[in-house]
Amino acid sequence: MNSHWRIPLVHLQREYASLGDRLEPAIIRVLESGTFIQGCQLDQFEKEFSKYIGVNHCIGVNSGFDALYVSLWALGVGPGDEVITVPNSFIASSDAIVRCGARPVFVDVEEDSYCMDSQKIENRITPRTKAILPVHLHGQAAKIKEIIEVAEQHSLWVVEDACQSHGADVNGRKTGSIGTIGCFSFYPTKNIGCYGDGGAITTNSPELSQRCRMFRDYGRVGRYSHAVTGINSRLDEIQAAVLRVKLEYLDKWNERRRTISMRYREGLERTDLVLPIGESLRRHVFHNFVIRHKKRDGIKEKLSGEGIESAIHYPVPIHMQPSYQPYGNIRLPVSESVCNEILSLPMNPWLTDGETDIVMDQVKLCLS
Ligand SMILES: *Cc1c(COP(=O)(O)O)cnc(C)c1O
Question: Cβ neighbours of residue 140 under 8 Å, at least 6 residues apart?
Fold first, then answer.
């Protein structure tokens, strides 16, 4: 996927080179066990991940999208309902709302954090609103306390999209443990990823946990007893075994991402680039390191010419996607303008200091 880049955004070959000795025996043990679906690897991973996030329940599912979809279903979100969310995200956060039959209602993001602007939620609430779905984008926690305050005043659920923020926290509480329910993706390039698709739901509610468990497995309440029409979305044993090994390294990897971000920050702060905010009470885990500049397209092209991969997260706000035409009749000025200026630089725990220097030198050459 990225072998032709001198400096790719994400470097999973290096991850494998450093961890293969631990991952291979874990995978082989699953092959030898003969159990591939809903066995002890999933049980153990669910226990370990709920402990890591700081909640009572974790439910493994097949993807981040499914985590969102199953969570919304468990909350009873369906046709006629509205869910407030952001346009500046990966499409899955909104698609899950549409898949439930509900209507996504967009609010703009903050200019500095690129996350949901909690000040703009209130006037988008209607009698049909059921939930607020903020996204902790790029590894930066949204202003979740303020969002929960608004939600509580209007008796709404808060579904946290933590698909980019494994390990990020707000005042010591991890994202995915603060709202009603948290949703994670283990897509290979996330801060912790498996070797295929995977996801998880986190919550402190025993009822929600039970509903999610039932829905992910054909609505099962007994072997051949089905209480509701569910889906098949189970995190398989091989992926769970891979994730159990990688979870031991997540904090160390996030620390390395933060160190790289400080190096980028020091090297780029005396330029006219806009850099990510660095709040101590909202601990960022830098899924992406996003810079902002009017000459974005020129910088991207220059990097590319030097063999350095960069990306735009995201070039088209969701409400402007063709598939969102039915919900897109609204202007969201911050999202619509930042998408023309943002650029994600290479960021992964295996990036070397020397590589960050090469990236910064090339970026700076574009600024003068
Ligand atoms: C990756 C991602 C998802 C979806 O995860 P998948 O596992 O690819 O389905 C949802 N929301 C956000 C913000 C993401 O980055």
Answer: 113, 114, 115, 165, 168, 276, 277, 282, 284
User: Mutation test of ligand 1: which of 115, 164, 175, 347 has the most ligand atoms closer than 8 Å to its C-beta?
Assistant: 164
Ligand 1 binding pocket includes 64 (Cβ within 6 Å): yes
Q: What is the pLDDT of residue 281?
A: 87
Find the helix packing angle between 353-365 and 296-305, rounded to 10°: 130
Q: Residue 87 and residue 313: Cα distance in Å, rounded?
A: 11
Instruction: Pick out the chain residues at pLDDT < 50.
Output: none
Which atom of ligand 1 has the smallest separation from the CA of 287? 15
175 lines ligand 1 (CB under 6 A): no
Alpha carbon of 163 to ligand 1 centroid (Å) = 5
User: Phi and psi of 243, rounded to 5°?
Assistant: -65, -35
Q: How far is residue 67's CA from residue 75's CA, in Å, rounded to a whole number?
A: 12
Which DSSP helix (H) or strand (E) runs through 289? Answer: strand 289-292
CA 238, CA 245: separation in Å to the nearest integer?
11
The pTM for the full model equals 0.97
State in Å: Cα 362 to ligand 1 middle.
Answer: 30
Tokens of 139: 């590894």
Assess contact for 230 and 219: CB atoms under 8 A.
yes
